[in-house]
């Protein structure tokens, strides 16, 4: 009878995996269908071999757990991808996940034949099911399958952001989810521990089972061509890892970049002064009173500064090139952009340009230092003369006003480029402003829109403090403020583009009297271009124009500081050229 059950199990594995394959893929050629039909048949025979050769019934609860784990893996990535892309992608073929799931069942069930492996099976089952269930939670939360953007976001998320994300939900929800995870873990361990299989086998049965298990282990997990590394989720992981590894060469190639970098200052001056670049976070001009007529005065200082049109230019048509911090700033900080060939790790940065132009560069960030090689942002920052990050304590908000303390260490007798990277309006909003600066809502309020407006007001106070300090102490000649991307406070953060509200950012440029006197052409261009459309992957060129240089790594026609600025609304893009700004109808 057990042999019959194993035969039925083989048929179930075969037909089930093939059904998933046909259902969750588009544009399959006839030869591809036949190939996978045979692949899954061979896999099913091998996977069922340990149970067949030992005459073990697959109806044992432990075997049921192994089958459930394999089935969940087989369906999760192909189905979430299919649900996400079935209307937009004409063809896709995720053939490996069902194949891996078949072997996963055989691999786990072979181990289940040995009582001393019961705890191992429980732990492995929990890990696999947790990975799969996480993908489903991600899908129902973000309305998309995990993709490259999502994988990047997951790998680049700071531990404090995870804590804040959990705190954004009510305590009872967090408790319920935690209990469900605990129940899942206990169930996965309880079943194999309390429902062992028969373990009295002859020597030849042991040899066949162990041999089959070793074959499946090698076939599934070998480093470069195993099934696991070719499954959908792990391919995404590998893509992001390769991206990170590739970017590590940025620091190694710095000397080579600098050796070929030629910079000539068009209006050189040895007079000590400071240029200030402030990079905001998640600030949307739709909610900023300096850019949008609204009842609440969310940015009173910037609005007041902008009214002085002789010195301050507000750009109402500025957009972010992406909706995540890292892919945005890897372009904004370097010559790498959507409109020319190149890559981040071979590109010169604003730090490189400033050094060549004779500036001492100070980089101060409240974003959390993940390590010198973790993101393009930290890679660029660490090439500055001074690069410092605020101290991030576990579960404790660190406010942007801490950055102002760093300004005391800047030498006013030098020519300085100062970069402040704010935490700004990054979710969770209620942790981004002090109660002393709260303008709307009551303490303890979880109203996302109200708290978002409070974050913008708080950022406005930080801009004022930085501006006042640099003006009084550091001979401020010019200030640039822009945000990495915008945010939509009435919905959870999304990893993929869901409308232009995520891209409408502030851009402001302030120029002193002395700067305007010595850089008249640049000043005129900044003012004449105030209604032009712009994406922040051109921030590198903006800063180059502000410094007023010529370089073999600077295209003047890409800069708002140039009369030759070439971009129209129709030409500008976002999301690596996939989205056209001209389609923003508002």
Number of strand elements: 13
Strand order of the largest sheet: 3-9-8-2-7-5-6
Q: Look at the structure and give the mean pLDDT.
A: 90
Tell me the major beta sheet: 7 strands, mixed
Number of helices: 21
Q: How does the helix and strand content classify structurally?
A: alpha/beta
Strand content: 5-15%
Q: Spans of 5+ residues with little confidence (pLDDT < 50)?
A: none
- Span between termini: 69 Å
What does this structure look like?
By secondary structure, the protein is an alpha/beta fold. Helix content is 49%, strand content 9%. It is built from 21 helices and 13 strands. It has helices spanning 2-23, 30-53, 61-85, 96-112, 118-142, 148-156, 159-167, 171-194, 203-221, 232-247, 249-252, 254-260, 300-307, 325-332, 350-356, 376-381, 402-406, 448-473, 513-518, 520-528, 539-547, and strands spanning 263-265, 273-280, 312-314, 318-319, 360-365, 386-389, 415-421, 476-483, 507-511, 534-535, 549-551, 573-574, 579-580. The chain has a seven-stranded mixed β-sheet, sandwiched between helices. Strand 12 and strand 13 form a beta hairpin. Helix 3 runs antiparallel to helix 4 and helix 5 packs antiparallel against helix 8 (171-194). It is elongated and about 95 Å long.
């Amino acid at each position: 009878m057990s042999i019959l059950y194993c035969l039925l199990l083989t048929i179930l594995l075969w037909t089930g995996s093939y059904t998933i394959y046909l259902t969750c893929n588009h544009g399959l050629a006839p030869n591809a269908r036949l190939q996978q039909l045979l692949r899954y048949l061979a896999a099913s025979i091998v996977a069922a071999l340990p149970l067949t050769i030992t005459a073990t019934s697959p109806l044992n609860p432990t075997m049921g757990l192994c089958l459930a784990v394999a089935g969940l893996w087989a369906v999760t990535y192909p189905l979430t991808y299919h649900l996400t892309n079935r209307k937009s992608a004409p063809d896709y073929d995720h053939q490996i996940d069902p194949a891996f799931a078949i072997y996963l069942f055989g691999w786990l069930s072979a181990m289940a034949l040995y009582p001393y492996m019961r705890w191992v099976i429980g732990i492995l089952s929990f890990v696999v099911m947790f990975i799969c269930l996480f993908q489903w939670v991600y899908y129902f939360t973000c309305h998309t399958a995990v993709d490259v953007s999502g994988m990047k976001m997951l790998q680049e998320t700071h531990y404090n952001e995870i804590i804040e994300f959990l705190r954004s939900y009510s305590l009872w929800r967090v408790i319920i989810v935690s209990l469900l995870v605990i129940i899942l873990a206990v169930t996965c361990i309880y079943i194999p521990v309390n429902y062992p299989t028969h373990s009295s086998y002859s020597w030849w049965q042991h040899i066949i089972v162990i041999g089959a298990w070793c074959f499946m282990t090698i076939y599934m997990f070998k480093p470069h061509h195993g099934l696991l590394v070719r499954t959908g989720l792990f391919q995404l992981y590998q893509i992001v890892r390769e991206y990170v590894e590739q970017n590590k060469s940025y620091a190694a190639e710095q000397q080579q970049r600098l050796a070929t970098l030629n910079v000539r200052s068009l209006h050189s001056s040895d007079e000590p002064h400071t240029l200030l670049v402030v990079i905001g976070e998640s600030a949307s001009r739709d909610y900023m009173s300096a850019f949008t007529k609204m009842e609440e005065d969310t940015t009173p200082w910037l609005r007041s500064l902008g009214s002085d049109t002789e010195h301050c230019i507000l750009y109402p048509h500025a957009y972010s090139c992406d909706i995540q911090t890292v892919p945005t700033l890897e372009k904004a900080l370097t010559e790498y952009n959507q409109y020319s060939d190149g890559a981040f790790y071979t590109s010169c940065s604003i730090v490189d340009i400033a050094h060549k132009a004779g500036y001492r560069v100070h980089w101060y960030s409240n974003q959390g230092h993940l390590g010198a090689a973790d993101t393009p942002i930290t890679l660029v920052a660490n090439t500055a003369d001074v690069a410092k990050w605020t101290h991030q304590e576990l579960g404790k908000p660190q406010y942007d006003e801490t950055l102002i303390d760093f300004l005391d260490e800047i030498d006013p007798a030098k020519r300085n480029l100062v970069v402040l990277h704010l935490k700004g309006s990054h979710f969770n909003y209620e942790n981004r402003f002090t109660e002393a600066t709260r303008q709307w809502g009551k303490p303890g309020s979880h109203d996302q829109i109200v708290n978002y407006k409070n974050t913008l007001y708080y950022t406005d106070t930080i801009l004022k403090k930085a501006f006042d300090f640099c003006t009084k102490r550091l001979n401020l000649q010019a200030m640039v403020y822009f945000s990495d991307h915008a945010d939509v406070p009435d919905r959870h953060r999304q990893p993929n583009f869901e409308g232009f509200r995520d891209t409408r950012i502030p851009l402001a440029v302030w120029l002193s009297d002395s700067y305007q006197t010595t850089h008249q052409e640049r000043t005129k261009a900044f003012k004449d271009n105030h209604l032009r459309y712009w994406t922040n992957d051109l921030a590198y060129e903006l800063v180059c124009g502000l410094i007023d240089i010529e370089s073999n790594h600077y295209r003047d026609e890409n800069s708002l500081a140039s009369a030759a600025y070439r971009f129209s609304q129709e030409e500008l893009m976002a999301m690596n050229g996939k989205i056209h700004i001209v389609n923003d109808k508002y």
